[in-house]
Write a structure and sequence with these properties.
mainly alpha; 7 helices
């Protein structure tokens, strides 16, 4: 009787995303690219496992687009020097691996790229200028009293949230 509410919900979601993009700092925009690529890889893994070739291909293509046209194209090689050059090579490698994962239907390549992107995202979050400003404003006593998660700190091994086949 009333029809689908999906188009209306999609319109609101698009407005929310558009507003988030317009209001985001460059740092936040990069974080959004990491998140979009990671989501696309997770969905590609699910579609690969379900043998849904079309959706798998679309999600892998989406991840490649986020890496190539988003993360890689935003690198400033002059200002970033060797770090930017190394990231450029790593992003190119990730795109090649994703292409091979799509062609040969190899989920382990999706996992490899997911882990690499997750590590880069974590490093990006760690250098967030807003987080640094908040940490600098915190009293030293609160920082000293913060519980340590492990003896290795942020270098401790962690489990991936990625879906394995």
């Amino acid at each position: 009787m009333f029809g689908s509410t999906k188009p209306g919900a999609n319109a609101y979601a698009k407005i929310d995303i558009d507003t988030g993009v317009l209001a985001a700092s460059p740092h936040k925009l990069t974080l959004m690219l990491f998140d979009a690529a990671l989501l696309a890889l997770t969905m590609a893994q699910i579609h690969m496992k379900a043998n849904d070739i079309e959706k798998k291909g679309k999600d892998i293509s989406r991840a490649i687009m986020m890496i190539e046209s988003g993360l890689r194209s935003s690198l400033d090689k002059k200002a970033g020097g060797a770090i930017a050059e190394n990231l450029d090579a790593l992003y190119a490698y990730m795109c090649r691996q994703l292409l091979m994962a799509n062609i040969k239907n190899q989920p382990e390549l999706l996992v490899e790229v997911h882990v690499l992107l997750t590590d880069l995202r974590s490093a990006w979050v760690a250098i967030d200028p807003a987080a640094k400003a908040m940490a600098a404003a915190a009293p030293a006593a609160q920082v000293a009293a913060a519980p340590k998660t492990s003896a290795y700190g942020s270098l401790a091994p962690r489990a991936s949230g990625f879906v394995y086949a």
